[in-house]
Write a structure and sequence with these properties.
The complex is a heterodimer of chains A (237) and B (432). Chain A has 237 residues and is of the alpha/beta class. Chain A is built from eight helices and ten strands. Chain A has a six-stranded mixed beta sheet with strand order 6-7-8-3-9-10, sandwiched between helices. Chain B has two domains: 187 residues, no CATH class; 200 residues, no CATH class.
Amino acid sequence: MDNQSPSACEAEIVRLENAEKIYLMGKEQVRALAGVTISFERGGFWAIMGPSGSGKSTMMNVLGCLDRLTRGHYILEGRDVSTLDDDSLSELRLRHLGFIFQSFNLIPQLTVQRNIELPLYYLGWDAHASSERAQELACKVGLEGRLNHRPTELSGGQMQRVAIARALANDPQILFADEPTGNLDTATGEQILEVLVELNEQGKTIIMVTHELNVAAHAKHRLHMLDGLIERVDGDY
Amino acid sequence: MHQVKLVRNIWSGIENLLLHKLRSFLTMLGIVFGVGSVVAMLAVGEGASKEALEQIRKLGSNNIIISSIKSVEEEATTTAHSHMSIYGLTYEDYTRVAESFSTIKQAVPVKLMRKESRLGERAMELRVVGTTPVWFDLVPRPIIAGRVLMPEDAKKQAPVAVLTEFGARKLLATEHTIGQSVRIGSDVFEVVGIVRSQGGVVQVGKSQGGQAENIQIPDQEVDAYIPIEVARKYFGDITTRMTTGGREQEKVELHQIIVEVDATEDVELTARGIEEMIKRFHKKVDYKVIEPLALLKQAEDTKRRFNIVLGSIAGISLLVGGIGIMNIMLASVTERTREIGIRRAIGAKRKQIIGQFLIETSVLSTMGGLIGIGFGVLVPFVITYFARMPTVITPQSILLPLFISAGVGIIFGLYPAMRAAKVDPIVALRHE
């Protein structure tokens, strides 16, 4: 990794350099990331694995621009974003990143359509264009005819599809998935993973956090973390 | 584009509030009552002062009124031997005042008496006003029938009387009464005209036994206007009043002198001048110079103070309403921590979260304000109906509370909104 070829550099989408994240838990300092250096290439599908407390969630929050490093650098699309302020990070998330979560995190009072439109609302799209885009995305994840339902009227799998549609609304460079199947039964979870695999095949870069091996098996690479460090990387790296 | 977005934001704010209809309604109540009381209080305050102001305004802002008053010394020196009290303005005063000031446009002497009067079968006590034709210039009122006093009446010393409509009606006088005789005291006068008496309940100052204590504006008085020369000739300057202890006599030449000044700017100086001049010829202070303009200013000042007091009370209720809103919004922020986290993760900036919550509180308080204005407009009608108090609703008394309620929403919404914006998306997303 130290002597990357120029082509590898072009293919790279994000990179962490000596990334350290230190939390203060009471009086104790916790090194959630203990100096991680890693590069993710465009179009990849990673599963970040590890036991709880291994730093996988922190890694994902940092990569997703939700959290800032204590030390080290985070380069996103060739730009060092480790020192950006809150507004700039929000802007990055809005324009370049998409998120799906274990507990779906839909806004309960909004309809499926309005949930999907949410990023477009902050992007300043007009109502008509947003509506068209939401319908298009709903079709893509298999939610035709559910646009006017409330999240509470949907099954877990359907809710996660809404979340995926919402995450795709801004056509993100990277899609982050935090335990996307954690709240779903195995069969439904498989379907959701199928959707993710399909998106990856269409060229979307996906970074997924999971602790289940069979879920991680769908990813191209598996990144095993332990005590804030990358223990090993397997898969066709 | 920007406006479209604002409308959308407001609309989604309304949608959010409609999710919890009862809670939103209860939250609004504080503002509803606050604004309602502001509107109602302003209406009552405005109504109370309006009539007084109108009365004073009717006296004419360019007028100065000089009235006779029974001085304190006079009352003290009245002994058992001397029942005759002599005081007040004199004919000479009138002549001096009328001729000495270049700023005076016209002046009118007024002599007031109460006399038992009779027209045909009907009898009642009339207030007899001995005056000159100028009176009808200074206290203008429409002629219903006949004419008002003319300079010729004075020259001819004609026993003619002009009645006010109010008095005329009691004596069953109509247009046909013109030319008939009315008996005033023991003398007979010809009715030459009837003028309208203007409505109005409040009177500035009251008349007592023909003695002018304050300003008199004979609105609903049952008046008979007669030439002052005739009044003097027929009735003299001495009035006798029967009391329990015997009889009391007063000698008052003139009860009032009303002066009209050319320009409003000169009113104050002229009033000072008149006062100085009369002082030189009177040993006692048995007169009073009143400027309606000064009274008007004073009344307006009182009204402003009244409004400030009412306003502060109403302001306190708005404050309470605002605190109520803040309380609920803080609870709402806690409750919606997760939603805030989701919005932040998606890419909403802090100021957009602030905006969202501010719009919600402003919509809440403004709606409360609108409902409050509805109540506030209704209440004065009820007050007027039951308490017979005049109330006036001005556009300001509606617009002001509306802006205040919107402002309350912004001020009391700011803190909860900032709390919302400080929510850490990572923590918020884990929030159950």
